[in-house]
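Standup notes, structure subgroup. Blocker cleared on the acetyl coenzyme *A input:
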Amino acid sequence: RHPGWPAKLGPLRVPAGILAVRPVRLRDAGDWSRVRLRDREHLEMWEPTGVGPWPERNAYWSWPSQWLALRGLARRGQCLPFTITVDGRFAGQITVGNVIRASLRSAWIGYWVSSDIVRGGVATGAVALVTDHVFDFGGLHRLEATVRPENTPSLRVLAKAGYRQEGLFERYLDVAGGWRDHFCYAVTKEETGDGLVSRLVAKGLAERV
Ligand code: ACO
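Run returned:
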């Protein structure tokens, strides 16, 4: 077992409903595939360039191998792959990846939310829950989020959650078929005070339930 894994986080009331975060499951296949096949336009331009066509990569039968890979990384302490739920229903994913320990103790965080419940505070709440968790229980000291400058909603999520902009990484990631510039946002444990969730609650953006 690695620190902070597995874990269930929340629940938290946000405008979209009751938000919770839990480890990815094999039986997420149906919901995962249905939402992602429907949401191609919402997701594809922000995601790593994939091998093969979208319908194939996001078919029901492509989840088991992805789930196995994520579970393997999680068991080795290199990743914390979570499913986001709202009112108990599948609502997206949030992942902490490339976990480096020793004197860096840092990782990246990435997320996506089903198009039918965006603008309801789900991503912001999930980022806050996961960030607090990896600092309190995962042994990490820093999280980094890289976002395309065009991705206004995601930039807003990070600002609301309490991340700060550190700089611009030029031609940083192979996303949507090209090497895309990304803003780097980050947060370290010292900056979070009583936690990012507590801050959202104090601002009236979420409520503990
Ligand atoms: N223009 C301006 N602001 C916008 C727009 C828009 N077109 N769309 C949404 N917003 C704002 C919302 O109003 C809200 O801000 P507010 O609370 O100040 O009004 C904010 O963006 C979104 O906040 P949440 O509701 O917490 O986030 P949500 O649950 O809607 O999820 C997300 C945001 C994850 C970016 C979602 O839109 C999504 O899945 N997009 C596609 C995939 C993606 O881009 N993932 C992030 C990649 S970068 C990374 O992972 C670090």
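Discussed briefly. The CA atoms of residues 18 and 88 lie 8 Å apart.
Next: hand off to the docking folks.
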